[in-house]
Amino acid sequence: MNQQQRVAVPRPRTRGTERSAARRAELIAIGRRLFADTSYDALSMDDIARQAHVAKGLIYYYFRSKRGYYLAIIEDSVADLVTYAAGGLELPPAERVHRTIDSYLRYAEHHQAAYRTIVSGGVGFDTEVQAIRDGVRTAIVATIAEGAYGRTDIGPTARTALLSWVCSVEGATLEWTARPQLTRETMCELLVRTLGGTLRAVEELDPACPAPGSARRAGA
């Protein structure tokens, strides 16, 4: 090959990639609205396409199937929950814990169908859905540990206790969203107080994880 010959290298399709990502994000945002309070089985792909004002083939192009679309919607909305719950680093620990629980309840309140799918089954409760649920649990445990102990590398006693508390929160939240007889503020305070009891129990079994002052005051 002489110096005059050059291999043609295609330029990156940056604009096309950006447009594709934006279109996918738009479809997910539409899906989050459609499935906010509607179960997976209640909407067909024809219903989704009609309400989203798009061709059904476009949804298949980006997500391959209705289930793929739904899982993408759940993952996106859960990512918002985890990001918000893990925020507020500038707040005092007690306020940060309260903020985390309140944001969790807000998510469950405004995304009831997706929340039920994550914590109690629903569409294809297989490893993918379990991974989403376990990711939320891990993030909440880490956030609570950081707020209570100033670190996330806690021992098995504290981790098991906090995970048990999170699982109880899931059951209580399912009951609350199905029968909203308590205000969100009251529900949040109830969960904060039960967390205080969990933290005090951890301290009794593992002195390396002392309960924070706010938890001690709640048990006084």
Number of helical elements: 10
* Distance separating the two termini: 85 Å
Tell me roughly what share of residues is in helical segments: over 70%
CA gyration radius, whole angstroms:
22 Å
How many beta-strand segments? Answer: 0
How confident is the prediction overall: mean pLDDT?
Answer: 83
SSE pattern: HHHHHHHHHH
Describe the biggest sheet?
Answer: none
Structural class, from secondary structure content? mainly alpha
What general form does the structure show?
elongated
Strand coverage percent: under 5%
Unreliable stretches covering 5 or more consecutive residues: 3-10
What is this entry, summarized?
With 220 residues, the protein is mainly α. The chain has ten helices and no strands.
Task: Write a structural description.
The longest helix is centred in the middle third of the chain and has 23 residues. Helix 1 crosses helix 4 and helix 6 packs across helix 8. The N terminus is likely disordered. The chain has 220 residues and is mostly helical. The radius of gyration is 22 Å and the shape is elongated.
Write the layout of secondary structure elements.
Elements: H1 14-34, H2 45-52, H3 56-63, H4 66-85, H5 93-110, H6 112-120, H7 127-149, H8 156-178, H9 184-205, H10 213-219
Helix pairs in contact: 1-4, 3-4, 4-7, 5-6, 5-7, 5-9, 6-8, 7-8, 8-9, 9-10
Primary descriptors:
single chain, mainly alpha, elongated
